[in-house]
Structure prediction request, 204 residues.
Amino acid sequence: MIRQNPGGGWLEVICGPMFSGKSEEMIRRLRRAEIAGQRVVIFKPRIDDRYDSADIVSHAGARMPGVAVANVSELAARAQGFDVVGIDEVQFFPAEIVAAALALADARIRVVAAGLDRDFRRLPFGPMPELLAHAELVDKLQAVCHRCGGPATTTQRLVDGHPAPYSGETIVVGANEQYEARCRDCHEAGEGLTSLALSRPSGD
Ligand code: ADP
Ligand code: MG
Ligand code: ZN
Prediction:
């Protein structure tokens, strides 16, 4: 895949479940931009401290220096002066990230945003629907289902080996829990789920 933005800004979104290679793909694209002599930076929300406080690290160990930001305004301020701005784990940012990403793209910056399109309940995750709608380019990656080896499109959260209850917090960093990539057939709904169609909060 060749990604170029001759002279103009735009928004690219890389999405998919956990382990689908979003961070790897982000690193690959930004390395290429660096090779092309562009000024490149990757941000991530400070909430994600699984591996390192600042570096972008993939599950397979690929790594690129990153900048952890506390909020969207810090990201917008620190993005100035770059040609390419990566945002990893973008699903954790609040709704304001959408306007900020579009403002950067309008300012002729290439914005590459990577994040989970859906949470462990399989519901759209935070700002992702809006980002996906606005993006010029979208890639939806698949992982390998931990159960059957097929293409995995969902993220399964397990607590003590059992599907996490539907009422659980969406974001739990550092808790005693485990995540697996699962296909539609192998995904197990947690206790409390009645219907995906009925479960979205109104007005969302
Ligand atoms: P993401 O950012 O989408 O969570 P990463 O880029 O961090 O994904 O990690 C992708 C890498 O994870 C793969 O290249 C592979 O080496 C490893 N991996 C581990 N488990 C799986 C899985 N179930 N499916 C696909 N890749 C996996
Ligand atoms: Mg990642
Ligand atoms: Zn499966």
User: Anything to note?
Assistant: The chain has four helices and 13 strands. The CA atoms of residues 182 and 190 lie 14 Å apart.
